[in-house]
Write a structure and sequence with these properties.
Blueprint: H1 2-21, H2 28-42, H3 44-54, H4 57-79, H5 86-109, H6 118-124
Helix pairs in contact: 1-2, 1-3, 1-4, 2-4, 3-4, 4-5, 5-6
Region (Disordered): 108-140
Biased composition (Basic and acidic residues): 126-140
Length: 140
């Protein structure tokens, strides 16, 4: 279930990028509709509900944070439908950081050994917005 959820997050992000990159992309309400359908079509919300039945409270909280980051990206793309602007870069960094934290927690939950997800370390340094950032274990 974990890998399916992570893949749905990735697909939702990728599908939204594809919509915005189209030369004939819609605008206004039509753009909102297509971006919203991209997230629905990826299965994110259904899989998040499945996680809420089987995952730990930490995983659920992190999954919600990743979904919130993806929804914020959708809203930003409606306001500024480009991936070349600073606002998209910021939204993408937040999404990647949330995904990295979620992957690391999922790996711990599955009892996986080895080094932590290398992307988490990259985002942890800039992780000043999260109130629980200081409580996360640091590696290396």
């Amino acid at each position: 279930m974990y890998s399916e959820f992570l893949m749905a997050l990735s697909r939702g992000h990728s599908d939204m990028r594809g919509i915005v990159l189209r030369p004939d992309r819609p605008s206004g309400d039509a753009l909102y509709g297509e971006l919203h359908r991209a997230l629905d079509g990826a299965g994110i919300w259904r899989l998040r509900q499945s996680l809420s039945l089987a995952a730990s409270a930490e995983i659920i909280r992190l999954a919600e944070a990743a979904c919130d980051a993806l929804s914020a990206m959708r809203d930003r793309l409606i306001e500024e439908p480009t991936i070349r602007g600073d606002s998209y870069v910021v939204c993408r960094a937040i999404l990647w950081r949330e995904n990295a934290h979620l992957r690391e927690a999922m790996r711990r939950d599955l009892g996986m050994d080895g080094p932590p997800d290398p992307e988490v370390g990259q985002y942890r340094l800039a992780d000043t917005r999260r109130p629980d950032a200081d409580s996360r274990p640091t590696h290396g």
